[in-house]
Specification:
Blueprint lengths: L8 H21 L9 E5 L8 H5 L3 E6 L2 H10 L1 H5 L3 E5 L5 H7 L3 E7 L8 H8 L3 E11 L16 H5 L8 H10 L4 H13 L3 H10 L4 E9 L3 H4 L5 E2 L2 H4 L4 H4 L3 E6 L1
Parallel strand pairs: 1-2, 1-4, 2-3, 4-5
Antiparallel strand pairs: 5-8, 6-7, 6-8
Helix pairs in contact: 8-9
Length: 263
């Protein structure tokens, strides 16, 4: 069944803050100093919790999302920071000229946390992000590989078995959709899950896009147990066994999350 963070906005925000403070920020800091004056841009900011630890370090942050209600929630949770001029939160497409002209070559760090797997035309989108980086700037990506047990995001389902059954999202599209309908999932839920089928991304394809984009992997970490599972399920994060990370394709099935910084 759907987890509490899928139903409670404040719980979701608090988990974003905790995960960012404990894992995302320290990971980025291994290759990019995070200090007062650092400019940070989050694509798909949702409720904005990922950005709060960066603001607490003195960073100026910009969060963008295509869903107005998510930005409205972020503005509520980060009202104090907004009033203090520590951040800007906007509902806008970053391909728009007004956004491009305002923020071209502006950011030290760009963050995409559980976002790239939702983005269409990733081969176009990832190199476009470079336009917003200062010289020496870096991009953080954190995402679940498509073939991992819940890479289809089926955990958002309302039915007990459709939300907990692993790997069935990799079945042929008609079979996957049929199982979701048999489980009583709404058409809105099914439509959202089909979008993940359309935009699925593996470790190998991600790394190919990075290379083709003229970017270099600066640091990476594969996880057997996703750090966010600490807050979702009470499971302690666990890094992937190194030999598994060397096996193309197979590693996708048993790696629940990957972190990368590229630049």
């Amino acid at each position: 069944m759907a987890l509490i963070q899928h139903l409670d906005d404040k719980v979701r925000f608090d988990q974003q803050v905790d995960n960012s403070l404990s894992y995302v920020l320290p990971f980025i800091e291994q290759t990019q100093p995070i200090k007062k004056g650092t400019t940070v841009f989050e694509v798909g900011t949702a409720e904005g919790g990922v950005l709060l630890p960066f603001m607490d370090r003195g960073c100026f942050c910009v969060g963008v999302d295509l869903v107005q209600i998510r930005i409205d929630l972020a503005k509520g949770f980060l009202a104090k920071e907004l009033a203090a001029g520590k951040c800007d939160l906007v509902c806008q497409n970053i391909y728009e000229d007004s956004f491009y002209n305002k923020y071209k070559n502006f950011f030290d760090v760009i963050i995409l946390k559980d976002v790239i797997e939702h983005v269409y035309e990733q081969e176009k989108f990832i190199p476009y992000l470079k336009e917003f980086l200062k010289p020496g700037g870096q991009i953080f990506f954190g995402f679940p590989p498509w073939y991992m047990p819940f890479g289809g995001h089926q955990q958002v389902c309302s039915n007990k078995w459709t939300s907990k059954m692993p790997w069935y999202h990799i079945l042929p599209r008609p079979m996957y959709k049929g199982l979701l309908r048999m489980g009583g999932e709404s058409e809105i839920t099914i439509q959202g899950l089909m979008e993940i089928v359309d935009t699925q991304i593996t470790i190998e394809r991600f790394e190919r896009i990075i290379k083709k984009s003229g970017l270099k992997v600066l640091h990476k970490q594969h996880y057997l147990i996703n750090p966010i599972y600490k807050f979702k399920f009470g499971l302690q994060p666990r890094k992937q066994w190194a030999p598994i990370t060397w096996i193309p394709f197979l590693r996708n099935f048993v790696t629940t999350c990957v972190y990368y910084t590229v630049g």
